[in-house]
């Protein structure tokens, strides 16, 4: 009996370690260019990259519920705890691209087609903290703009007005993510877009510690109201014409629950009125570490009506979420393709603004042990995400219907089909 208990504990420890390393991202200050999406290389994209001064640092707008460290070491002003305030901190980070490389080398690295990560590195240089505007803590739903003089709002609008595209991209990171790393990944997104539009790093207080999974889950839940307030502020204070949201892993419930709360609070508005107000174009839910039936409840509450479209990326071989499923004794949304009840499939089939995508057939395109970080490491998946946010349908993106009729999948010759569509 004692031997059996010891054996079970060893198994649980191994499974827990597997889970706890599932969302690890590149080390701070060492973020390298991801594999170039298939079909990204074109005459137009090359021309736009050549228009950019790659020696200029990329601005990344920060919204963070992390605590501010009084005497920080290095460029990161934040700790790994909550800021213990009803509103998040605001800041503007500057990230360099390809230090020591020429513009020609950076462009060539960006346009490579070998399916491997590049040599170009992104490095956080500094962060300017900006006072958060005073708000009525009992209501963050204001109708009129009244923060136009705030430096964060002014600089965001300046970037949008000077850009070819008045688009904001918001990245919501997952568990065990350092602030520096998430800021650098945001800069990478802007770089691939040839610096069009603006990017916001919603840096909720992940502790950046592989042993703090449950603490991170609690901090993500705490951050829901902060994200809801961000969407309200962007709708009211900026000149953005559309907003794209990409959430990963434990960051997904933040986005879904905030959108659900807005839909409930604004129940007097039609779906078209909601989309006109909040300007949310696309919502990407990548490898979501979220209870499947909690997501279904949000669908019943019509969270998706805020967006033009929602894409849920799942994998049947996501080992990290398989352990999370065992830990919570409930299926995770990011593994939904592996196990869904009939009523759950029927519910999602009725919602035409939600796409369910099974990336299992694309797993071989990235070298990854746990199958959880495919949204930026896998060129097939990153390609589809890029096309989705540009409002292409699954058929136009060369996906094919899966066997069960709900999920879209990647055909074996996906890369050839995408290259042929250029």
Give the topology:
Layout: H1 2-20, E1 31-32, H2 43-50, E2 58-64, E3 66-68, E4 78-82, E5 89-97, H3 103-110, E6 121-130, H4 151-161, E7 167-172, H5 179-192, E8 198-203, H6 213-222, H7 224-237, E9 242-248, H8 252-265, H9 271-278, E10 280-286, H10 292-300, E11 307-314, H11 319-328, H12 342-349, E12 354-358, H13 374-377, H14 379-389, E13 400-401, E14 407-409, H15 414-420
Parallel strand pairs: 2-8, 7-8, 7-9, 9-10, 10-11, 11-12, 12-14
Antiparallel strand pairs: 1-6, 2-5, 3-4, 5-6, 13-14
Task: Please summarize what this structure is.
The protein is of the alpha/beta class. Helices cover 37% and strands 19% of the residues. A twelve-stranded mixed β-sheet has the order 1-6-5-2-8-7-9-10-11-12-14-13, sandwiched between helices.
Question: Would you kindly provide a written description of the structure presented here, covering whatever features stand out?
Answer:
The N terminus is likely disordered. With 422 residues, the chain is an alpha/beta fold. The N and C termini lie far apart (63 Å). It contains 15 helices and 14 strands. Helix 1 packs across helix 11. The protein has a single domain, classed as Rossmann fold, CATH 3.40.50. The strands form 2 sheets. It has a 12-stranded mixed β-sheet with strand order 1-6-5-2-8-7-9-10-11-12-14-13, with helices on both faces. It has a two-stranded antiparallel sheet with strand order 3-4.
